[in-house]
């Protein structure tokens, strides 16, 4: 299927790259259908809306820079997207890259959880005070290397 993307223009996308987020993302609740794309720069991904080209998010695996990251998500929340086994979940953080050249940050308080098999997703809200909406990725990587 063809999708118009913010990063790459019109591209062919495999059906397996489609992600459905029934409740949407916070602030973008009306957008439900996305495709998950590899970004040109690893370890990042694009979450591209299938409805509006300019609605796209950069994602990263939070465990890459915070090995101690813990998700305290209730079983009922996981059941909403059909996950009973945590191994079936893909976990991403939404990345913010400020236009003013400030530090690149990741939202660890609102992770995106995706069922690998059904490709249903949900943005969770973590209440653990360690996880904020803006973690400086480069600082966290440096700290992780020093431990």
Q: In terms of topology, how is this protein built?
A:
Elements: E1 2-5, E2 9-12, E3 18-20, E4 33-38, E5 45-49, E6 56-60, H1 75-80, E7 89-96, E8 105-115, E9 121-123, E10 135-136, H2 137-145
Antiparallel strand pairs: 1-2, 3-4, 4-5, 5-6, 6-7, 7-8, 8-9, 8-10
Q: What tags apply to this protein structure?
A:
147 residues; 8-stranded antiparallel sheet; 2 helices; 35% strand; mainly beta; BH3618-like
DSSP summary, beta strand count: 10
Helix content: 10-25%
User: Whole-number average pLDDT?
Assistant: 93
Within CATH, the superfamily carries the name BH3618-like
Oligomeric organization of the protein chains: single chain
* Domain unit count: 1
Percent of sequence in beta strands: 25-35%
Q: What is the end-to-end distance?
A: 45 Å
Largest sheet: 8 strands, antiparallel
Uncertain regions: pLDDT < 50 for 5+ in a row? none
Explained architecture:
By secondary structure, the protein is mainly beta. The protein has one domain: BH3618-like (Roll). The protein contains 2 helices and 10 strands, in the order ββββββαββββα. It has helices spanning 75-80, 137-145; strands at residues 2-5, 9-12, 18-20, 33-38, 45-49, 56-60, 89-96, 105-115, 121-123, 135-136. The strands form 2 sheets. Strands 3, 4, 5, 6, 7, 8, 9 and 10 form an 8-stranded antiparallel β-sheet that branches. Strands 1-2 form a two-stranded antiparallel sheet. Strand 7 (89-96) and strand 8 form a beta hairpin. The model has no long low-confidence stretch (mean pLDDT 93).
